[in-house]
Design a protein that fits this description.
single chain, 476 residues, paralog of FGE (formylglycine-generating enzyme), 2 domains, four-stranded mixed sheet, 22% helix, Gliding motility lipoprotein GldK, Sulfatase_Mod_Factor_Kinase
């Protein structure tokens, strides 16, 4: 009798702990017909392939200079067999055009915030206003007809929420203009003018944005420290405020005795270079770009009537992920195309690099470039990735240490507890100014995370859940 009573008590505990129901967030009775049956669709999760990215299937490979090491530097790349999980990766390096979308979005967000503060209560601004006056740029909650949800009203009554104030939600439907002849009123002009360099700092009286004011604010959690302390909380949140405009002076600073002024003047903003890889970007700026990319995808998913799964985070690749992807599925690939040669059977170069001493462009027919090249100008590797060797070297998430390979894990190697603390960051791939040896898939290099160079860019990746089914391509 006592045993039967214990079984009944155990069953009641299981039922009471099975908790919330499914469907639209409304709680109800657990299970189906008295059975513990998970609610929701039984369909498997399908990983949605982000636009411009390709899937990299997980696997094992020999990491490091397994083929040849002319410089005899085994401490930099001790061969080691490791395993990496599946992920999506940008098929090209992030281009000037893509990075301009980022900085313009940050600029617009700051402009809208300043205009909303200046608009105050709106004074006649309406939901869906067309920007006819500064009143149209008031916070969405201040406008006529804006119906707040009970939860939003609660947050406002409590003084907002730490890190986000629902009452200060911007109305992004109202168009912005930076054309002075199209400014709607004098107050709008006053606000926008505060974002530009003052007259006394302008060169040739050119009216340009003061990009030092255009900063992207975000926060991330130091999970490694939280796990170490067996704790979670806001004290592990790291808040960042990053000036996002690339350093265009790198074309002059990196080469003291060369005439590179045309690139300093034009490389980032001129449409002739829009499909060229962005350079002059620090490690911190590259990470800010990744966070922005995650945010816009998350915001889009949340805007859908039929909610999607939370977007996986975009990030920089670890150096093991980068090297694995660079090999293109070929074990011990010296270069991304496999073999040890830098030219194909027609004598055309397979990457953009410095072919000989003092020779940056040997022959146009061979496909070389004086500086960087537009993306997709050289053959892709076995995974569909372009320019994994040459053109520009690429930031990775990983810190640089000569003994990294000695103590890092063989499963998804990464030094998470040193990632942001370590000033030196691993850079991979070689660039347009490097000789062929530095383009090898196993070759390692480093740069300080606060440094910007004319030969370093980046590309992003996104994790693929281990239980995901076949990939689904997104539309443009």
């Amino acid at each position: 009798m006592k045993r039967i009573l214990l079984i009944l008590l155990s069953a009641s505990v299981v039922i009471s702990c099975s908790g919330g129901g499914g469907g639209k967030g409304i709680t109800g009775n657990p299970g189906i017909k008295g059975e513990l049956v998970p609610r929701g669709s039984s369909k498997s999760f399908v990983a949605e392939r982000p636009y411009g990215m390709v899937p990299i299937p997980g696997g094992s490979f020999v990491m490091g200079m397994a083929d040849q090491d002319f410089a005899s530097t085994p401490e930099k790349a001790m061969p080691k067999t490791v395993t990496v999980s599946s992920f999506f990766m940008d098929e090209t390096e992030v281009t000037n055009a893509e990075y301009r979308v980022f900085i313009n979005a940050v600029r617009d967000s700051i402009a809208r915030g300043l205009l909303a503060e200046a608009a105050g209560e709106g004074g006649g601004g309406e939901e869906g206003g067309n920007g006819g006056s500064i009143a149209d740029y008031a916070y969405a909650s201040k406008k006529t007809g804006d119906e707040a949800t009970p939860y939003q009203k609660f947050l406002e009554s409590q003084g907002g929420r730490d890190g986000y104030d629902e009452s200060k939600k911007l109305d992004k439907k109202v168009p912005l203009t930076y054309n002075t002849s199209a400014y709607p009123d004098e107050k709008y002009a006053e606000v926008l003018e505060s974002m530009y360099l003052p007259a006394e700092k302008r060169i040739n009286n050119e009216r340009i944005i003061d990009w030092s004011k255009i900063k992207y604010n975000y926060q991330w959690e130091d999970v490694a420290s939280a796990v170490k302390d067996k704790d979670r909380g806001t004290k592990y949140l790291k808040k960042e405020s990053i000036a996002v405009y690339p350093d265009t002076t790198v074309w002059v600073k990196d080469f003291n005795y060369a005439y590179n002024e045309p690139l300093f003047d034009q490389y980032f903003w001129h449409n002739a270079y829009k499909e060229y890889p962005v350079v002059g970007v620090t490690w911190d700026q590259a990470r800010a770009y990744c966070d922005f990319k995650t945010k816009i995808k998350t915001d889009y998913n949340n805007s859908l009537k039929k909610k999607k799964q939370k977007a996986m985070r975009f990030r920089l690749p670890t150096e093991s992920e980068w090297e694995y992807a660079a090999k293109g599925g070929i074990q011990n690939a010296t270069y991304p195309w496999g073999g040890p040669y830098l030219q194909d059977d027609r004598g055309c170069y397979l990457a953009n690099f410095k072919p000989k001493r003092g020779t940056y462009i040997e022959d146009e027919k061979k496909g070389t470039y004086t500086y960087t090249a537009p993306v997709k100008k050289f053959p892709k590797n076995g995974y569909g990735l372009y320019d994994m060797a040459g053109n520009v070297a690429e930031w990775t998430e990983s810190p640089y240490n000569n003994s990294t390979y000695e103590f890092s894990s063989t499963l998804n190697p990464y030094l998470s507890n040193q990632a942001y603390r370590e000033v030196k960051k691993t850079v991979r791939g070689g660039s347009w100014k490097d000789v062929g040896y530095l383009l090898m898939t196993g070759y390692r290099d480093w740069e300080r995370k606060d440094s910007a160079r004319s030969y370093i860019g980046f590309r992003t990746i996104q994790d693929i859940p281990a239980g995901a089914g076949k990939f689904k391509r997104t539309t443009k």
